[in-house]
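Figure 6 in text form: structure in, sequence out.
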């Protein structure tokens, strides 16, 4: 353990200096265990397309006269799809698919519609002009087809374009996810191109008071993953994925192409083998950072969930969340209970009663808000939560309730010093939107000493956590 005056965090194109209280000691200032990005994503993708996993190469198919839908992740994801979409389109053309047979569908989930300039950044302006493209509309019944219901009771409504296509090609990132363990695979279709009701019900499959944070967990451990794969399977379509494994700077390191199950599982094994390391001991204070998921509060706040089990129960988690677009689409009411009262109520209610209470309070609201409220209250029940950002509304501190919000980083540390024990031990996570599991797993809070070198104390994968749920 060491004493440091300040910790430098990545902050957009600059750095953020976090000056710590003098009596705090730093267990480890940790950076991702990552892999160097490929120098040319298009070439790397082209090579992976030539040897797909569990599927025939796209170029070897007969697509003459057939309809193809290319599904890409939306503006909330930093996946540089524009840098590797052309090899995919070239393969489709080699198989006989003409531009008029191809639709590009942005998997917006329940996010807002992507703006034209955002679509251009995602697929390239030339492709915008060459192909039909549109954003998925989760709230428009006319855009959706009902395919049935999963065994877990999720009604499956998916975009009609998917139903009428002969081939679906899904481009996005294979990243850690708070409820799925890992994203990627069929997730581009459900929840990415599903109706709002389907998305909400699917998210609630992962709501378990004892294990509400499954980031980096095995695929079999995620009810949400099992549910969405069953739901997407109701399309009975030929699906081909192009998933990029990303490093902590949101750059592709390797591509996994082919069957939506087999290629996806190969990708998760790659990430887990390279980056799956447990920390042996939780800290009194965790300092976590949103980079590279800096878009808005919904994305930036994932750094809290990612590092939850790095903190002792009752400890303090401090999130530096850049939030370039402010609140974004995060729902925040006009009024709210003060932070101390919300945390007291969460602790008095207990983890088993939080979900029934939230369901009653949000009976007439979208199901996704039930999930978000449950997840936030479970974190707050376990730990003190503080956020620093200069891009959030000043009044948010009085409305959010789930965390104290500061626009001055020194004020956040002054507040944290009042909650933490004297001589607090601090774990600092510089790229905390990238890890997939921090700690010995959900609910585990004991262990040996930290390794200050970092690589034996922290779990990092290549890229967040993102997700349509946050």
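Output sequence:
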């Amino acid at each position: 353990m060491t004493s440091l005056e300040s910790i430098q965090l990545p902050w957009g194109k600059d750095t953020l200096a976090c000056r710590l209280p003098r009596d705090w000691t730093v267990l480890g200032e940790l950076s991702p265990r990552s892999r160097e990005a490929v120098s040319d994503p298009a070439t790397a993708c082209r090579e992976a397309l030539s040897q797909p996993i569990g599927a025939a190469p796209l170029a070897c198919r007969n697509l003459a006269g057939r309809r193809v839908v290319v599904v890409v992740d939306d503006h909330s994801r930093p996946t540089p799809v524009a840098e590797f979409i052309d090899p995919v389109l070239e393969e489709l053309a080699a198989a006989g698919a003409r531009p008029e047979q191809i639709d590009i569908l942005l998997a917006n989930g329940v996010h807002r519609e992507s703006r034209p300039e955002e679509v251009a950044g995602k697929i390239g302006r030339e492709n915008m002009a060459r192909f039909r493209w549109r954003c998925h509309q989760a709230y428009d019944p006319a855009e959706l087809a009902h395919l049935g219901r999963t065994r877990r009771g999720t009604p499956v409504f998916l975009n009609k374009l998917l139903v009428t296509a002969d081939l679906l090609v899904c481009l996005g990132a294979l990243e850690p996810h708070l409820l799925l363990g890992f994203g990627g695979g069929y997730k581009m279709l459900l929840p990415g191109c599903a109706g709002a009701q389907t998305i909400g019900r699917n998210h609630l499959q992962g709501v378990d008071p004892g294990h509400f944070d499954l980031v980096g967990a095995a695929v079999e451990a995620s009810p949400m993953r099992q549910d969405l794969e069953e739901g997407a399977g109701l399309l009975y379509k030929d699906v081909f994925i192009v998933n990029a494994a990303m490093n902590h700077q949101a750059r592709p390191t390797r591509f996994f192409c082919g069957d939506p199950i087999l290629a996806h599982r190969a990708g998760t094994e790659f990430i887990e083998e390279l980056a799956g390391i447990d920390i042996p001991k939780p800290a009194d204070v965790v300092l976590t950072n949103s980079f590279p998921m800096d878009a808005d509060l919904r994305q930036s706040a994932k750094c809290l969930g990612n590092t939850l089990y790095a903190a002792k129960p009752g400890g303090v988690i401090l999130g530096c969340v850049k939030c370039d677009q402010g609140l974004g689409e995060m729902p925040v009411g006009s009024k709210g209970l003060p932070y101390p009262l919300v945390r007291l109520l969460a602790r008095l209610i207990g983890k088993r009663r939080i979900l029934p209470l939230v369901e009653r309070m949000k009976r007439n609201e979208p199901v996704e808000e039930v999930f978000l409220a449950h997840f936030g209250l479970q974190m707050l029940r376990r730990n003190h939560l503080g956020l620093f950002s200069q891009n959030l509304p000043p009044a948010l501190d009085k409305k959010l309730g789930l965390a104290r919000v500061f626009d001055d980083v020194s004020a956040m540390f002054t507040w944290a010093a009042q909650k933490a024990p004297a001589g607090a031990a601090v774990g600092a996570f510089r790229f905390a939107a990238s890890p997939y599991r921090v700690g010995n797993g959900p609910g585990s809070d004991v262990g040996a000493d930290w390794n200050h070198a970092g690589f034996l104390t922290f779990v990092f994968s290549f890229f967040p956590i993102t997700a349509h749920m946050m």
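Caption detail: The CA atoms of residues 29 and 428 lie 5 Å apart.
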